[in-house]
């Protein structure tokens, strides 16, 4: 799968990418929501977006709302340093929300196989 | 198998450092009254990032502390919590704890063992929220809502910070390689002197040929060759200078290398001692040679610890004396000509000079009579003497053997700098360190003493003068002095100090005393001393090489240089020359006193007021050699205070002085009932009639002009006035 990873924190962005690549996916990094939105509207075909929640200027949730408004329906998974439940209360339409912690290798794998199932 | 994220730990350490310094910088801007939503946002994000990434690499303790900080910042951002000194203290404690934890992680990134979160810290960080937010408990999701309210700048892109990986524009070089390069550069610059020497030699040969064989057809060719060589050497030396400067620049580092870690360290120390301080730092952008920076942190930290330990009082004590409860320690740097000045000051108790004096006497560092004669500055300087420590109780931090003498030693000997202190009792102290920008190449003055070359580093030299031999005044005990710019400057012959061993030179010419004397005037802080040398030789930029270890005991020589003629020349150590010269003078004046003590005029007390330390010193010694008891004062106000405290039999005063001049002092003294009849003598370089009249008008008894100052006239005047 081609996956877009958006995170303003380069370290955590790279960690996410490392996990995804270990799982055999192709990834592109974006350092903020604007860059991410540009890549999405670029015609590049991504199958999943992983985005950080807390970013300068445009947050992950705002980005999600923006791309849905542009009729882009690609699965959108939010990564957050806080309780995922809060984010999901705030934006229930998210395809998923994961807590950034050391269990991320497992949770990422699980959510990706979840997403792939209905598509098959 | 899923990937193990803990291999990112060392990356996390790097990132955390960056964010911690961002937060710390941000907090200090907030403290200085910045009220910027974006700033608080940025702080919040840094804390948030630390929290997130630490959790990803399984450093739970760090993530928990970061979370508490984040909560505080979030409350500030939403306006439910007001930023104040307590909150800022709590936040600082939090980030300090994280730095500590990150340091633990950095030591063993493979398997970091972090302690659990400190309970006290938790309470400290939670306290502002529990007290201020009772009415509106902060829901956890509040930060997201706030984000929603922020103005969203969509895809314009120009204001979005660029975060793509850039191709690095720097190259990492091992320090020893750079050091080697600079050392070589120094040698190349020094070799210029040799090139000049060769050019001169060739010029000499050309002359010889001209005189002996003027028609030699080779002569014009040699002349032409000589000229081109001269030009080439000149052009090359310009390039060398430039090359050397650029090489040195590579090794220059900002003082922030030392300064940045200071404020955290100071806060931690202050906490451990239960004192409250604010640490203000400025000038950390100033650059110095890495060689100096490396050796600077120990002395600076020692001085800062001292300021905290001995200087800053406890909050209660401070409030009792009407000071703000939070003490202030400032560390600042600025450039002053070829020096960099670093000042460390505190608004604490100041140094009790009387205590310093009595302690120095008690410890046998100085005799009681000697201590009496010292000025305030000289007394404070006693704290730099080995074996001196003023703290009544030996605490963990200061007073554990490494003392101010070590600080002074490393600054003066190793860094070729100077250190001094000024203090006001009850108001604080300031330590001033002066450092050269670089130690690689120094400008030195070469001169000759007893047909041997010696040199001094240029920054210690105040002036070079040639004066007629007979303009030297001989005062008490065969001591000599000269007047330079309205100041008495003691004159010492360098031969007497260096004690050059007599060389058995058969060809030595009979020395006819030259009518003119060459003086090298050395200045250390305010004090000047003139040294007689035989001749000036040259001025060059040279590499000063340290003495081999077995010669370190020689205090008078701080290093060696190699000159153009391949000679080894000793670099004299200016402060050591001062000490030696003073010892020599004291020895001679003691002899004098022993001879004249029998006259028994020791009950006559005289106050000498002059702002020049060397003038005071000379007048004092002169008067003492005649058996008078002398007290000195540094300016009119100081003189007035001393005169009021104790009745003197006569007052000698200079005219031009800071704070209060001699005329005002005289007038003020005459207002005092006890000084109506005391003789006041004005000593000055002013020779104008109008001044003399003014002196008489304000009530002076005599007016002596320094230029025709003769000791007998002063003593005679005094004797006449005292009756």
Shape assignment of chain A:
globular
The protein's oligomeric status is: heterodimer
Most extensive protein-chain contact, per-chain counts:
A-B, 43 and 39 residues
Strand segment count of chain B: 23
The name of the CATH topology of chain A is Rossmann fold
User: What strand line-up does the widest sheet of chain B have?
Assistant: 10-14-15-13-12-11
Tell me, what's the shape of chain B? flat
What's the CATH superfamily of the largest domain in chain B, by name?
Histidine kinase-like ATPase, C-terminal domain
The CATH topology of the largest domain in chain B, please? Heat Shock Protein 90
Care to count the β-strands of chain A? 5
CATH architecture group name of the largest domain in chain B:
2-Layer Sandwich
CATH-assigned homologous superfamily of chain A: Response regulator
Number of domains of chain B: 5
Which characteristics define this entry?
heterodimer, A: 120 residues, alpha/beta, Rossmann fold, 5-stranded parallel beta sheet, 5 helices, 5 strands, globular, B: 723 residues, Four Helix Bundle (Hemerythrin (Met), subunit A), Heat Shock Protein 90, 5 domains, 6-stranded mixed beta sheet, 5-stranded mixed beta sheet, 23 strands, flat
Task: Tell me what you see in this structure.
The complex is a heterodimer of chains A (120) and B (723). The radius of gyration of chain A is 13 Å and the shape is globular. In chain A, 51% of the residues are buried. In chain A, helix 3 links the parallel strand 3 and strand 4. Chain A has helices at 10-22, 33-40, 60-69, 84-90, 104-119; strands at residues 2-6, 26-30, 48-52, 76-80, 96-99. The mean pLDDT of chain A is 86. With 120 residues, chain A is α/β, with parallel strands linked by helices. Chain A has a five-stranded parallel β-sheet with strand order 2-1-3-4-5, sandwiched between helices. Chain A is built from five helices and five strands. With 723 residues, chain B is α/β, with parallel strands linked by helices. Helix content of chain B is 47%, strand content 20%. In chain B, the strands form five sheets. Chain B has a six-stranded mixed β-sheet with strand order 10-14-15-13-12-11. Chain B has a five-stranded mixed β-sheet with strand order 2-4-5-7-6. In chain B, strands 16-8-9-18-17 form a five-stranded mixed β-sheet. In chain B, strand 14 and strand 15 (527-533) form a beta hairpin. In chain B, helix 1 (9-31) packs antiparallel against helix 2 (37-56) and helix 4 packs antiparallel against helix 5. Chain B is flat, with a radius of gyration of 33 Å. The termini of chain B are far apart. In chain B, 34% of the residues are buried. Residues 132-164, 390-401 and 592-601 of chain B have low confidence and may be disordered. The chains are: A alpha/beta (120), B alpha/beta (723).
